[in-house]
Every structure is written in C-alpha cells, then in structure tokens.
C-alpha cells in the first residue's frame, strides 16, 4: 500500500488510469536510494489499483492518490533500499511519535527499518512542526502544522500495541490536499479496509 503518485507518473487526468495499470512508474523512484545504487534497488510492479474515492493529490485533475501494488519480483525488501542521503528529499532517519485517536503512533519504519512485501512504502521522513495533541470535531486527527514535506509520501504509520506494530495508515501528500476522509495528509487504514479486503480477496496483492 502506498501513494499512487509514488508509483504512477503524474498525469493531468488520473481517472484514465483507474483500475489495473500495466505500465507503472519505475520503482527506482518509488523506493528511493542514491544515484549509484538505484539500479540495484529497482523492483518490478506488475499491477497497480488506485482507490478512486480517497485522497486527492493536488497535481492531478481528479486527484486519486491511494494505491495497492503487486510486486512481480517476490523478493524481500531490506534496509539496503532505505535512502542514504539527508539532502535528497527522500527524508531523514528518525521516528516521530504522533497521536491518532488518543493512541501514540510512530511515523516511519519499525525497529530494524525493514519493510515487508505487503506494506510497501517509499520513504521515511519527518518534519518540524507536527503537534501531538489537538481536537477536531468528535475525533482525534493527525494535524500537520504546515505542509507535509516532499519525501514523506507513501510512508507507513504504525501503532505500538501490546509490543506489536499495527499498521494504521499511509502518509499522503499534504498541504493543499482536501478530500473526504482525509486526515490532514494521512490515509487511515480503517477508513478503506473494505476496499483493501476486496483487492486482497481477488488476488491483487500476493
């Protein structure tokens, strides 16, 4: 699960690419890395399904920006693909505690900073100005004080509960984003669980 714009080249009208996409964006941009090792880190994506009712991206007309991808090359994604440069706009190596529904979550990769083949994400990054407590309507929401920085897109947010990491959501493009169910730059897994289950049950994700 990740942002559509991490794995699909931005086009004026993403609606034309809804459903299965046969020619996704090169995964070397999706996974990050340095110029010298991009070729080593590249994986093949065979299918992409975009969720058309969630998470608008400001650079597209229709703005659908949440996707599930199938990896053609079934290999383990280890920490060798984690970006090495702090100046590459691919983020920095630190975790940040944030609050979701009165529970503390971590923005970034858990523990050894390895990913698995289900929660595939582009980067880990944090920026200054993220507040930990606030109230909006009747729910606690993620509030980013300012726009989300480039490089955060696609990163997972985990909740630590009973010494286990629970996947809570995906960091999306922030700042100008304004869509229904949009949690200030974050897509909550619970809001789209039915859509995820549908594609899992239909063999979209290995």
UniProtKB/TrEMBL annotation:
Source organism, top-level taxon: Eukaryota
This protein's name: Serine protease
Name of encoding gene: Contig8232.g8776
């Amino acid at each position: 699960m990740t942002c559509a714009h991490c794995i699909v080249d931005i086009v004026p009208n993403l609606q034309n690419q809804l459903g299965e996409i046969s020619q996704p964006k090169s995964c070397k941009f999706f996974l990050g890395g340095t110029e010298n090792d991009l070729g080593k880190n590249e994986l093949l994506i065979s299918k992409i399904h975009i969720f058309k009712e969630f998470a608008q991206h400001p650079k597209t007309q229709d703005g659908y920006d949440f996707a599930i991808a199938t990896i053609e090359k079934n290999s383990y994604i280890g920490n060798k693909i984690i970006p090495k440069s702090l100046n590459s706009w691919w983020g920095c190596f630190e975790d940040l505690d944030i609050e979701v529904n009165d529970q503390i979550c971590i923005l970034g990769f858990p523990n050894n900073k390895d990913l698995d083949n289900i929660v595939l994400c582009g980067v880990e990054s944090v920026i200054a100005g993220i507040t930990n407590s606030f109230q909006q309507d009747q729910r606690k929401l993620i509030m980013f004080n300012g726009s989300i920085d480039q490089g955060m897109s696609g990163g997972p947010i985990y909740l630590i509960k009973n010494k286990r990491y629970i996947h809570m959501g995906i960091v999306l493009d922030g700042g100008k984003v304004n869509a229904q169910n949009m949690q200030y730059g974050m897509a909550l897994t619970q809001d789209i669980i039915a859509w995820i289950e549908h594609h899992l049950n239909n063999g979209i994700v290995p």
